[in-house]
Amino acid sequence: MATCEVCGNSYGMTFEVHAQGAVHVFDCFSCAIHRMAPICEHCRVQIIGQGVEAEGHWYCGAHCARAEGKAGIVDRV
Fold it and tell me: pTM of the entire structure?
């Protein structure tokens, strides 16, 4: 059994996420989101959806990017 790196639960059905050369082990999606989701640099919410990247910074959407002075950022519908 593997152990979740977030909550420490030993579970027979853990899964691995391979990202940026590292391997992470989780027992559920909520633990994976807690560890892996970027944080909006304006409102501090965890970005679970697409998000917006501007000049190396992550935002939950165009509104927050614009609030931080990033010009020309629009949400896609």
Answer: 0.76
